[in-house]
Amino acid sequence: MQDVYEQFKEVILAVLPLAAVIIILQYTVIGLPPELFFRFIAGVVMVGLGLFLFLVGVHIGLLPIGEMIGSALPKTNKIWLILLTGFILGVVVTIAEPDVRVLSSQVDDVSGGEIANLTLVYSVALGVGFFVMMAMVRTVFNIPLKYLLVGGYTAVGILAFFTPPTFLPISFDAGGVTTGPMTVPFILALGVGVASVLRGKSSSSEGFGLVALASIGPILAVMVLGVIYG
Question: What is the pTM of this model?
Fold first, then answer.
């Protein structure tokens, strides 16, 4: 019950400032039509309710199952299974990410359907999956995070010279939207679970850094997509 109350408080603190600013602007500067303003109020209420239910679901479902899967995988002593599971989970959790859906629909509209909605979603998902797998490689073989980050962003810098200008901003936006409310909790829990078994509870912090790595994948994937479309 205490956890539910904490989630409710978090949602109120997150949504209320935005609503307050819009209400102040409504009566001082903007002056939206009453119908549109009431739609905004209704939208805020529904967003708050949906976010509350989502956060409760994350804490009672996604986080525990992610950490349990991460803890169970190393006990199989099959490195290929750990890597494959990391890749698959990275792909499917990204496909379910609301932020990715929003970006892909916007890009679809702006490009007039040239960059199809699902094409971008699956490209971003494959990029995330590959780098979640690389994060598992880092944990299994105890590779310093900085080497993978430097290598990944070096590849981004090189590929940027060959990427059409229209795809360059989309690629970095794609890297940002993968750090959304669906992907981050699950991937972090998975990483902490794997690291806690392989490195011990005292080194479970090694499970962090997955999100930093995962965000490189979509950037590279969309850049490659741009080279293909270009």
Answer: 0.80
